Fold:
Amino acid sequence: MSSDNTSHSGRAAPDELVPSRYALRIGEIDVLVVSDGVLTLPSAMLAHNADPAVRAAWLDDMFLPPDTFDWALNVVVVRSGGRTILIDTGMGVEFPGLPRSGRLALRLEAAGIDLASVTDVVLTHMHMDHVGGLLVDGVRDRLRPDLRVHLAAAEAEFWASPDFSHVSMPPGFPDALRRSATRFLNEYRSQMRTFETEYEVAPGVVVRRTGGHTPGHSVVRLASGGDRLTFAGDLVFEVGFEHPEWYNGFEHDPEEAARVRVGLLRELAATRELLVATHLSFPSVCRVAVAGDAFRCVPAFWDY
Ligand SMILES: [Zn+2]
Structure:
């Protein structure tokens, strides 16, 4: 199999062998999960408070290699009430050495979604793998001038003076995250619409601040015609079902992040609604089951 048609620098890749998009409907709301690619990072990021042997055993049980982990990078497009809403924007080209990410623009194009048709962007938080897509050269010019960018006020405030004292990231990441967030605030400030606790972006599309991963981290709740789906951003990772108490290296307040994670997973297990999260393996559409004192991710059945 050739990978030529997925070259990072190459324009339009509408003929990718794997389209990397997954459509579903939540009542009247159209939902499209689009992969921005994958981020290959050291496995230790998965759980910096776990016994390395236990972490290695988890990877082995999942048939994964011991040293690096490929993080999925899912973005969601939602259409409701005449609005087209992009939830997070992928990595763009914000960090060197992650050439398999930053595909969002190409994959939106391949899906027939023009950037100029996007009316709203919702940011779960301001890490570069969530805002980077809007910082790629030329993207801003293709967006509508009246685009609204929604995020929690607490998130914008946090990045004015971010605290990295509880994270465990690879070298270079804290500086790069600071730089990207600062650039984003500078470039998009006039279009930002901040909210305190929650905001209804379109009918049945509500962004709600949870905190945890970052102080202004938010999730997006979709509800229409009795169907429900939650986009959990970075509250839930692949290890988070079995080991919700494991601290992810990118969490700025890992204790709070674990507490919020457990609360959300309990709620989703009770409501039986669908879950999609940024870094769960594409397309990540699943339901949450309780398994003893932890959880289980039950993939949704293909029904197209
Ligand atoms: Zn992330």
Observations:
- The chain has a mean pLDDT of 94.
- The pocket of zinc ion is lined by residues 127, 129-130, 234, 278-279 (CB under 6 Å).
